Each structure stands twice: as structure tokens, then as C-alpha cells.
Amino acid sequence: MTTEIPAAAATDDHIFATWLATVAGERLLEVRTQGLEGRELKDAGDAAAQALIAELLAEHRPDDAVLSEEAADDKSRLDASRVWIIDPLDGTREFSEPPRDDWAVHVALWQDGDLTVGAVAQPALGETFNTGTPSVVPARTSTRPRIAVSRTRPPAFVQALAEEIDAELVPMGSAGVKVMSVVRDLADAYVHAGGQYEWDNAAPVAVARAAGLFCSRVDGSELAYNQDDVSLPDLIVCRPELAAQIVDFVKRNGTE
For the chain, what is the total number of helices (H) and then of strands (E)? Predict the structure, then answer.
């Protein structure tokens, strides 16, 4: 792999984020070839991606604040106008189970109150979805709505939602992969209420918004980032035509 930065990335944050997520993903693919297994592979992946991203941010965006899952939270970010929100390896379980491809790298930029840039690399697919070249979500190819859910811990309320709107559940790995599944027309919605943090969904939400998808908390309220409390426990990402049905269901039934 090479970490030579594209010339345009010096001034274009979309290109920079895309490159950063992509090279971190390449590093993770290298880690996967080192003969490690289980917890050792998970830890090595987290550490390698975090180290590379931190080094490249310090070199190329030295004046910006950073919030990363794998680093101590420097609260000075709350007074910053630019904050990179990073998940160096989203879906460590899936990463540690080669040849699974449902894991990702998240790189987002929060700027003056909202997300402005996002990139989600799915290294095992050789794809990095980003806000610089937004995806065009194709027309729906399924007659029944498809809802992406966790393959290990799908929330019970989503099963009830699926029954009400006659949807099928599609299990898969990381949060980023689930959101990208809606962008890619592999699913029509991702509904989550089992607990997440800002780094779990900042980059995926930025990419999904750029693609024209509906994104909100499960009660329909706005998603907020660079908060003092980085917990962001629930999320809806879906095709716009499904949003009212899903939000209405949650308002009537809750998420228990």
C-alpha cells in the first residue's frame, strides 16, 4: 500500500476523507494476512488503523480536532470548528472472520454544527462510498421493503416493524455496512435502537444524506454530532418514501 496523498486532497476535504478511509482499509487488509485470529486479529486491526489515521490527520490536517473510537476523548473538540469523527474499524467481529466483507472504515468531518464530509470504505469490496462523488440510489428492486439488521443481536421491535409493513429482515455486520446497504439497494432501511456512538454512524449518515436518503433519530428528530456525550443510541436511515411509516411505528410502539 502507499500513503502518498493525492494532490487535490490538500484542499478538498471530500477527497482527503476518501483517501484516508481507503488507505486505512488497505492497511487492515494487510493485517488480515498476518496469521492472527480472534481477539488478536481484532486488536491488531483496531490499533493499526487508528495509528495510520492519527498519523495522517496530524500530518495533513494538524489544526483540526479529532474524535475517534480508539483514542481518548479530548474535550477541546467542543470548542473547535472542525472535528474529524473516526471509527478506524467498524465491525471488528466480522473483520476477525475472514473472508467476511461486512466491515468498514468510517471518516467524517463535522464543521460548524453539522456533518459536511463523509467516507465509508468497505475494503474487502474495494469500495469507498463518499460525499465527494455521492452515490445515486437506484430505483427499488424489491417488492417488499428490506430492513438491514444485526446478524448477532437484531432488536425485537424491528421484527414487529417488519411484520407491520410486510418487510423482510436482512442480517449483516457493521453499522456502516448496514447504512451502505441502503445506499447500494441491498436494503431499503436500517433501523437501530440498541446503542451506538457518534463514530458508529457519522460517516455513514453523511454518505447516506448525500445520496438523498432519509436520516434521523428513531423519533424523527435530528441527529446531532460533536456533542459532550457522544452516545447516539438510535438511528433510522431509509428511502424517503418509507420514513413516515417507520417513524410513526416507533412513536406508537417504542423500541422495547
Answer: 7, 10
